[in-house]
Amino acid sequence: MSTTIQLTAYPGKIASRTVRHVHRFRASSGTNVVILLLLLILCGCKHRQLTTPTVQMDIEPEFWIRVLLLDDVTACTLKTVSPFSVLSDMAALPTEITENRYNQTNVPMRFELANGSITIDGKTFTNEKVTIFPDDPYIFNLNGGDYRGKLKLIVNPDGNSFDAINLVPPEPYLAGVVGAEMPGYWEPEALKAQAIAARTYCFYIKKRFGANREWDMKQTAAHQVYRGISAESSQIWQAVNETKGQVTSCKQSDGPVDIFPSYYSSTCGGHTENSKNVFGDSFETLIGVPCPYCQDVAKPKFFFWPMIQFDKADVTARLLERYSQLEQLGEIKYITTAGQTNYGEFARLTKIKLIGSTGKSDFLRAEDFRLAIDPTGRKFRSTICQIVELSGKWAFFSGRGWGHGVGLCQCGAQGMAREGKNAQQILSYYYPGSVIISIY
User: Fold this and answer.
1) Are residues 82 and 163 in the same domain?
2) Which terminal residue of the chain, N or C, has fewer Cβ atoms less than 10 Å from its own Cβ?
3) DSSP labels, 225-240
4) Which domain holds residue 276?
């Protein structure tokens, strides 16, 4: 089965492009004004349909990716470009699955939770799980975002909310990730390296954690960013298609060659970090390597970030909110470096010591500390920094890099691609000893 796909026609893009050209046209007569109005009506008011088919819809079930789109909600809005079926089941047996057909297209439909059951267009489904299966081209719009595949709604055990999960084949999923994680205009080999790394990470997380929950991946940076169809482009699909089924693998210390968590981050700041120091896991291929490539790619304001300050009380509150075991410390009085990796002109913090008003102390990995204080990671961008007490606040200065710094440096991958390195060479550099294999 071919997985080659053409660039999707997004609603409104052709129209907006036409309108921009129309505005350049200066109406000098009544006829021109009429033409202008007609163009605005015909081109600016009618959106193009999403007609590009979704590939891999017949791939084996074990390869489908389950992406958590909505968590603990009581309502959502769905719109499709084709009729769809609603399949409901309790035991997941084919003989016990019921199907309801909906022929409305391009009409927003409200999905709500009422008395512990999901209602769709006024019809109540008593089953705790329902799956929305659009007809070809297998596309749906959930709360304004376009996605491929199917949508599964699962009522949570307390009956007060439900989760919305996108069931999507791997290559369409990757197209929605690569374009969200890396600019589509970057070098093709950098995009291919990103596609392989993202595919590997996805299947590793799915294999390790998916069996114990109803979903495999979140759509946020907590795993990897997934934006569905809005992230797609012809360049992104080319990178995905040319690496179809490819993942990175390495020799496990106590077993055969297998995939590993192929972490990646935006800008390592000059040297990547050992995974053990950041996430606590230990893989021979996830060791730090020098990176002279990212500084020439990343914008200076992102490679070097300015000093930031947080109120002491806020720091204590955020740490206690995430780590209840720190309550024994009381108010955090002292923050000191307990571990760091030195790289000559800079060092990455790896362990933080916290001393509280009770006189007790505890430790956190520096990356956990960073994300507890700034969950977005947009201000406190990395643990390459220094910490100082300043006028009743904690200040972090001399910062460089963006992200945890483990594995692939995305800006570094672009820098290597600019120098002529291919995807395999890029991945081999950032994941030393890794080998690319195909899993489907």
Assistant:
1) yes
2) N
3) ---GGGG--HHHHHHH
4) 172-298+405-438
